[in-house]
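User: Hi! I'm a student and our assignment asks us to look at how structure tokens line up with a sequence. Could you show me two examples?

Assistant: Happy to help. In each example below, the sequence comes first and the structure tokens follow. Example one:
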Amino acid sequence: MVGVDGSSGAAGALDWAADEAVRRGAPLLLVHASKLLEPGNMLKEDALERLREERRHLLESTREGLLGERPDLRVGLELADDDPARVLTELSRTAPMVVVGTRGAGGFERLLLGSVGLHVAAHGYCPVVVVPRGGERGRGEHVVLGVDERHRQSAAIGWAFAEAELRGVRLAALRAVNGYGAPGQRIGEEMMLSEALAGQVSDHPDVVVEYRLPETSAARALVEASEDAALLVLGARKRRLGFGTVLGRVGHAVLRHSACPVVVVAEPEED
């Protein structure tokens, strides 16, 4: 599922989502949502109907463009009269993946798809991919996985291994450490990182894993790693009471500054 608004910023997310759907042999749902389409708003009925027809045409022409380059792609359309962040989040309950861009149309609707992307990444029920403008192709072929100090990222780790296997590329597992202190600390960190990935290494023997322990902040390390990566995978802890995920400062920094698409994978719920 991908959010569509006709902007150049959203075009990269659209292309990435279409390519990923082809790679997976999955259907693609194009979603356009706007509160301007809501009955009873400031627009008169005839103006509202013209606007709805314009947005339907946007979706239909977008589908035609995708099928012209990818004739085997199955494409569905969804037009909704509500806030785009709310619509995409609700639809994520039944989707295997949601894709959004970093910048949208702006103008009259004041739609910044960047804010929509941040909201969906923090509240989505399935993996959410945020595609930076101009970064839809990535600058490399490998997948980068960010691993935190508690290693409570079973869903993200599993997703990253499966994606690397699907693409036939190596996986770079990264855990940043600001200074190692004692000489033996680096060895200990490497062992902990290896242990955190051991189960998936066993389940995905064809995936070549590279372990990275850069001596810098996590946000800086991940953003720098995105410069030559095809994809960056982060875990986010899901809260039980329905208030979204815990992205934290690192997650927000990476989503705003990554040079490649970022996948946010919600982890098991917690209080």
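Example two works the same way, sequence first and then tokens:
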Amino acid sequence: MNGTSMRVVLATVAMLPLTSLSQTSVPASPGWAAAMPSAPDTRVKITEEYAKLVGKDAYFWAWPMMNMYNRRLHFSQFKEISRSGPLMSAPLNQLAMLTDYVDPAERSVACPNQDVVYGIGAIALDVSPVVVQVPDFGNRFWVYQVVNLRTDSFVQLGRMYGTTPGFYLLVGPNWKGDVPKGITEVFRSSTNTGLVAPRVFQDDTAQDKRAIQSVLREVVAYPLAQFDGTMKQKDWTKLPQLPPPPPSEEETQWVFPEKMVDELPAVLADAPPLPGEEARYAQVLAVLKAAAADPKIKQAMTEGAKESHEQLVTPLFQFRNYGQQLPHHWSTISNESAFGTDYFTRTAVAKSNILVNSPNETKYFYQDLDSNGTRLNSANRYTVTFAKGQTPPVHGFWSLSIYNEHHFFVANPINRFSVGTKNTDLKLAKDGSLTIYVQPEPPSDRSQRANWLPAPKGDFSLYVRAYWPKEGVTDGSWTPPAVVQVR
């Protein structure tokens, strides 16, 4: 068929109504659809180059799931709730609570905050459903984050939801047991693996640090078999002390490219494909099957994972490399803890600041640069000025935190790593504005020192949290002010 004839045929087909196409363009053949392959043919030989390509892609989108999987393996080692230097540990399906702000030496989860008292625990819902206790927090802000293997939240527990005190049950995708009397609500996860991370607001005062202790004792989680309908208590000040981990500057490594081929089958089995992911899963599983039989294919997949780690995942640690771009070089995201198939954002968030709350619970704003687009660095001094009435509009609280180049706190003379609602001594200017002074040394003007946010040595980042945000934050009409370098 020559080119003119082909154009005539295409034009004729284009003019046919859809009903005509469905009735005439494909001959009736009962066996035709059945003959179409539904997945890769695992009997065929594949090249190492193809295996490397699949490994590189799979490592990127499965990185958050491997992160969660290895955290579960870590918690599975513990037989009792304990403290290890700045870290807390608990057996699977339990949690451990701090009794004050997180220790600045913590290196388990990047971008912690010193506005709340944290808890942490890994859940294994294939082992047992988990009961989560909610005490009476009164007027205190609180929220429980519970995420699945994909780092997506699957519960709604917090002050913004009007949650009542009681017992809440977490179950896995295949659980079919009876719900005991006394359970207020059941939340079903789409995976068996996940993490529980309560957050309870605390003022930066000695009085509130004492007042919060009684309610913290009832923030407890345990396997369903231990449920008896009574509110259990735990004195978090009396935990066994284990040797502290070696000091580190960077976050604990949870994902290892050299282990991907061995770990990925279990990870994917725990997180069945979302709608539209079936072909992606089939492709990866087919190459994993080949890798199990051929060391060269396994090595090729591993090389792809290593390339992905260096070229794709590592750069996403920098906030400026992802997110919705806002005025003054700030950025944000809007699908936190509900990433679905947004693989890029999910991996970027997991790499840079894993375990973010849902957007109606907390809104996050990230900053690596000053108003001129220059990297924030302790060689300079900066101001962040909120005009009168223009601090983040929230029902809960807000804060401006500072992190070093590794997204962690570094000890400073006044033990301050964030400023915001928790600080009762911040000074407003005569016009009602609030200026935060971000610099390594205290301001020479003593009247400014109450608003000083000490900068760590070298490059650093700023981070605004708006807990239980109001409309101005949720609709995007409010964004943070510029970070201005002071000459």
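Here is something you could point out in your write-up. The longest strand covers residues 394-404.
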